Amino acid sequence: MKYMLLIWNRPGFTEELTEQDRTALFGEVDEIMKELTETGELVGGQALANPSQTLTVRLAGGHPEVVDGPFMESKEQFAGYLTVDCDSPQRAAEIAARWPDVRFGGALEVRPIMDEAGTEM
């Protein structure tokens, strides 16, 4: 089963870290990615640009309207995602629990990805 691990973190938290701590954090991410690649569980993933570069489309006055900025106010920002293919939701949660952003106030949301038939709903 494939799972999307949605990475949420506090804006700017990496700037609060020392250079040594930042290097260690990114090293942990690299280790996890290497492991997931070696086990064949990594499907893909990307970091996202700063929310200040976001556009949001909403219905306003019966018509779609494009506005600058994230779609909602939040203490956390959607910072990126991983897609993994693993045997169980517990394994996906285990991977998410190891993600270093969690130690710095972030969170990872583990969501099953529906197949094209949508039978998981």
Automatic annotation (TrEMBL):
<dbReference type="InterPro" id="IPR011008">
    <property type="entry name" value="Dimeric_a/b-barrel"/>
</dbReference>
<dbReference type="Pfam" id="PF03795">
    <property type="entry name" value="YCII"/>
</dbReference>
<comment type="similarity">
    <text>Belongs to the YciI family.</text>
</comment>
<protein>
    <submittedName>
        <fullName>YciI family protein</fullName>
    </submittedName>
</protein>
<feature type="domain" description="YCII-related">
    <location>
        <begin position="1"/>
        <end position="115"/>
    </location>
</feature>
<dbReference type="InterPro" id="IPR005545">
    <property type="entry name" value="YCII"/>
</dbReference>
